[in-house]
């Protein structure tokens, strides 16, 4: 099996399975590895089809693109990097994903959480390691979550985030130097 070219990631499931999309490797963005994505989406399988998803700190857009490919009704990508946003938009265009199923918000993720009125079923949280943004985002999440929700988190081994009150782990796993897990917030129906 040939090695994938640098700066390319593969969608591993759903409608766009095996399609390659470009990401900005020079920026230090680290797409979630294929085997980790496969496990995460196996965990999310009962909820992903028809869900409203949020790829916060989108980076390469790997998790959000995978969600769209697997039948998410709508996915919002939030990323501050202008080059990353251009490449996410190009991937959506190349995959012929309708605008009604996705949008790209070029803004600070924490600011986005204070501005959006949407409620999300699935949120992907994979900020730059060591930035402190994971914990800060977790604190802000309840206001944007639907009552039925799942939060995918990724962090470096040995640095597990403390979950705030009302949030609980459902699954956790380690793959090399990266840990990942699935959590849920207990959100009141409004």
Report on the structure:
The protein is α/β, with parallel strands linked by helices and 190 residues long. It has a single domain, classed as Vaccinia Virus protein VP39 (Rossmann fold, 3-Layer(aba) Sandwich). Helix content is 27%, strand content 29%. It has 5 helices and 9 strands, in the order ββαβαβαβαβαβββ. A 7-stranded mixed sheet has the order 5-4-3-6-7-9-8, with helices on one face. Strands 1-2 form a two-stranded antiparallel ribbon. β6, α5 and β7 (145-156) form a beta-alpha-beta unit. α4 runs parallel beside α5 (133-140). It is globular, with a radius of gyration of 15 Å. The mean pLDDT is 90.
In short:
It contains 5 helices and 9 strands; from the N terminus they run E-E-H-E-H-E-H-E-H-E-H-E-E-E. It has 190 residues and is α/β, with parallel strands linked by helices. It has one domain (8-185): Rossmann fold (3-Layer(aba) Sandwich), CATH 3.40.50.
* Main sheet strand line-up: 5-4-3-6-7-9-8
CATH superfamily heading: Vaccinia Virus protein VP39
How large is the count of helical segments? 5
Order of helices and strands: EEHEHEHEHEHEEE
Radius of gyration: 15 Å
Assign the CATH class: Alpha Beta
The overall pLDDT average reads: 90
Helix/strand-derived category reads alpha/beta
Secondary structure: helix percent = 25-40%
Name given to the CATH architecture: 3-Layer(aba) Sandwich
Basic shape: globular
Strand content: 25-35%
What CATH calls the topology is Rossmann fold
Number of strands: 9
